[in-house]
Amino acid sequence: METGPGRSHDVVIDPVSREAIGRLFRGDRFRFEFGMRRGDDRWFDPTPADHPALDERRRWLAATPDDCVLWRPEAAPVFAEMLELFGPSEGPADPAGLARVAARWEPDFLLLRHDGDGETRLVGGAVCFPSSWTPAEKLGLTVDAIHSPVPTVNAELGARIRTFLARLPEGAVFERENWGLAAVPDMNMHPRLGLPRLGAGTPLEQVWLRLERQAFRALPKSGGVLFIIRLTVHPLEEALADPEVRAGFVRALATMPDEIAAYKGVASVRAGLCHRLGARP
User: What percent of the chain has pLDDT above 70?
Assistant: First the structure.
């Protein structure tokens, strides 16, 4: 098992993440939310050289490049158009250029491209911090195929996702959030690493909220879409400090269908979490 310093997490939660957590846990039950809203081009601001995530990104890019760097030849025009969002070209538009951008920019990113059959496929990207999935296995797949292991998501949101990606207006950024739970604060949870998983006996103080802030931007010249994933990891107790947010989280966990709980890796721990969190004042 290869692990490393991979312990980049936030005990003091920044206001943007706090607001995102509040949006995630405000419903009366669990559901997969589309949740798109307008964003802005601050997503493409340069990352400060001293940002704590960059050292870890560079470590994984150097140690496991085949896990992190995704590339098919049809990604070249999509990546070249993505580079235009940053001003002067970071080039070249090849796997080496993509790895260089991934080492200097905080979020993970995926390059999607519309093909001649009306499908949207994953053609490239850089993923250093996957949440228990294997990015290389998804390369070349359609969006529906990528989501197929996730119970009910295609049935509930598949058509809406396909329409959204096909009709993204030029120049607009849309954003949303997603979440998961983990037994470790490691950013990189690639399945190959064999990291500990949640279990019925996992103490509350060892449960971590993985918050993904996601953004989408059309790349119309190449027929592409840029999908950005900015990950932060927070102690669950701190993330649920607000009583209303905590109550919403408990409702979501308690009403989550069994097949989704199994997919998310929380089936064995959710009863205990609901009891411990729900009993708190």
Answer: 93
